[in-house]
Design a protein that fits this description.
This protein has helices at about 85-95, 110-115, 120-125, 140-155, 185-190; strands at about 5-15, 20-25, 45-50, 70, 75-80, 100-105, 105-110, 130-135, 155-160, 175. It is of the alpha/beta class. α2 crosses α4 (about 140-155).
Length: about 200
């Protein structure tokens, strides 16, 4: 059984393929596009985001931060270089306004498939299904493949956004190329800090 790292499940999605879908946001990407819609999903692993608009500057987190968080006029300043994940977990627990939010959950393919099949009736009625997005879902190809087999056998369509590997072609017949930036490939190369972008033809629908 494969394990993967995901961020969230977006139910009742109508923008990531035909019908009503559930979109699985996978964590990790080998590109660094300047216009990325989900930059918090680029780096692998668990992380915590801080939302200053939720913060009421009560100082609860500072009492548990071992000196790695300070209070400023516009909210908390976090020393990301030194603070550890256990401290951030404590900050999440004590914050009364949920200003700290965890991004990243490790889950097995079987457990994820079970969650996805809860909305099977919506998929069936609307001609929808499941879309694997990200991040770059292709970096977790084995996990996506194992997860997709269960909904597919239950006659739910599984789509794969961005790229496809040969092993997933049977279970994921629809591939949606990333069209988040309608600019020329030369500009993409200049704005991707990883310099890993390659021009490819769109996958067959």
């Amino acid at each position: 059984m494969k394990e993967g790292f995901i961020s969230t499940l977006q139910s009742y999605s109508t923008k990531d393929g035909p019908g009503i879908r559930t979109t699985v946001f996978c964590i990790g990407c080998n590109l660094r596009c300047a216009w990325c819609a989900n930059p918090e999903l680029m780096l692998p692993g668990e992380k915590y985001m801080y939302f200053k608009q939720r913060c009421i500057r009560c100082g609860s987190c500072i009492k548990h931060c071992h000196g790695e968080i300070s209070m400023a006029e516009n909210g908390c300043v976090i020393n990301r270089a030194n603070i550890d994940m256990d401290t951030l977990r404590q900050c999440e627990d004590v914050c009364p306004k949920s200003a700290y939010e965890k991004v990243g959950t490790r889950i097995t393919s079987a457990a994820l498939a079970q969650k996805l099949l809860r909305d099977k009736e919506f998929y069936t009625v609307s001609g929808g299904g499941v879309t694997f997005s990200g991040g770059e879902a292709g970096l977790q190809a084995d996990f996506v493949y194992e997860t997709a087999k269960t909904p597919s056998q239950g006659r739910c369509s599984c789509n794969f956004r961005y790229r496809r590997t040969d092993q997933m072609g049977h279970f994921i017949p629809f591939v949606r190329r990333n069209r988040s930036c309608p600019i020329r490939h030369q500009i993409h190369r200049r704005t991707d800090s990883q310099k890993m972008y390659r021009c490819q033809q769109p996958a067959d629908p």
